[in-house]
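Internal tracking record. Fields below are filled automatically when a chain is submitted to the structure queue. Please do not edit lines marked as system-generated. If the sequence contains nonstandard residues, flag them in the REMARKS field before resubmitting.
Queue: standard
Priority: normal
Entity type: single polypeptide chain
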Amino acid sequence: MKIFKVTGNCIAVIFIILLLALFSIWFIASVSVSEKVVGPYLLIYKKHIGDYKNVGSVMDEMYSDLKNNYSMETTKGFAFYMTIRDKVDRLQ
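SYSTEM-GENERATED OUTPUT FOLLOWS
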């Protein structure tokens, strides 16, 4: 009887692994790539030199300025960080 239990467990594990493999292939196979024209976009930026932890106030300031002075609502934001540690002073 013990052999049936071990065999049943092995079959169950193999079945679960097979299901997981098929599930992951299903997700990978459903990716489609398309090309389309989007935009126009307006990029507004402000240069900041210094520690990364202080960039939040710069972004908040830009958001407030755009909203209050130009009546522009922003929907997405991003930051581009470029560091040359040997040449940039952290306290700058």
